[in-house]
Amino acid sequence: EAGVTQFPSHSVIEKGQTVTLRCDPISGHDNLYWYRRVMGKEIKFLLHFVKESKQDESGMPNNRFLAERTGGTYSTLKVQPAELEDSGVYFCASSHLSGYNTGELFFGEGSRLTVL
Amino acid sequence: ELKVEQNPLFLSMQEGKNYTIYCNYSTTSDRLYWYRQDPGKSLESLFVLLSNGAVKQEGRLMASLDTKARLSTLHITAAVHDLSATYFCAVTFNAGGTSYGKLTFGQGTILTVHP
Q1: What's the pLDDT tens digit per position in B34-81?
Q2: How far is A32 from chain B (nearest CA, A)?
Q3: CA-based nearest distance B103→chain A, Å
Q4: Which of A39, A43, A111 to mutate to test the interface with B (most CBs of B within 10 A)?
Q5: What does the pLDDT look like over A15-44, one tens digit per residue?
Q6: Beta-bridge partners for A78
Q7: Which DSSP string corresponds to B51-106?
Q8: Any bridge partners for residue B22, and if so which?
Q9: Which of A25, A66, B74, B111 could form a disulfide with B21 if both were Cys (CB 3.0 to 4.6 A apart)?
Q10: Closest by Cα among B92, B75, B80, B4 to A101
Q11: CB neighbourhood size of B73 (10 A)
């Protein structure tokens, strides 16, 4: 069974440009999460989808970040326009809806974003 | 606000030695997780601890939880090179119907095991 996959693995863009990160969760997983680790800092929660609905987006830094999950399958996270402080590793994780109680998350390998 | 602190942040160990990583958290938590990450790879779940006094062991790693002290430990026994990785603890609290997937992470402990 395929795990959580993320694309691209690494993106280098200039300040002011736009980047879209994609996450494909494990098939059948209704919960999808985005996390971010800025260099030297903790991994921080960004938002949570249940199917196509945003359950909790309290961790989104500002309105330059837009997450979508049309159809309740894959998700995208767009940063527009990117700023230097957006550099970091963006992790996606998924869990089955029954994982509501088990809490087991499966993480992708992350997308490293470098903003120059 | 829930905060999680790990120490040490860097740990250099000799093979065969024992050591403990500590994870303190600031408020009541429902569950505590330990993850391992190899460079450029995903976070791999090691342990989920649900209740006070919980102890879990897998190979050379043993995790325990003291909810009264808000402390978890990850003990490494007779370290081997393959254990070199970054270890994270994370906690969650199911407040108001949010799922257990909203984790608050510690800073991570970079473990290096050398001969």
Answers
A1: 999 999 999 999 999 988 889 999 999 999 999 999 999 999 999 999
A2: 9
A3: 7
A4: A43
A5: 999 999 999 999 989 899 999 999 889 999
A6: A20, A66
A7: STT-EEEETTEEEEEETTTTEEEEEE-S--GGG-EEEEEEEE---TT--TT--EE-
A8: B7, B73
A9: B74
A10: B92
A11: 16
Mode of pairing for the β-strands spanning B85-92 and B109-114: antiparallel
Residues of A in contact with B99 (CB under 8 A): 31, 48, 50, 55, 95, 99-100, 103
Contact criterion met (CB < 8 Å) for A55 and B98: yes
Give the best residue of B32, B37, B42 to mutate against chain A (max A CB count within 10 A): B42
Q: Between chains, do A55 and B106 touch, taking CB under 8 Å as contact?
A: no
The residue assigned the tokens 């199917």 is A51
High-pLDDT (> 70) share of chain B, %: 94
Q: What is the spatial distance between Cα A36 and Cα A40, in angstroms, rounded to a whole number?
A: 12
A56 touches chain B (CB under 8 A): yes
Concatenated DSSP letters for A39-59? TTS-EEEEEEEETTEEEE-TT
- A75/A87 Cα distance (integer angstroms): 20
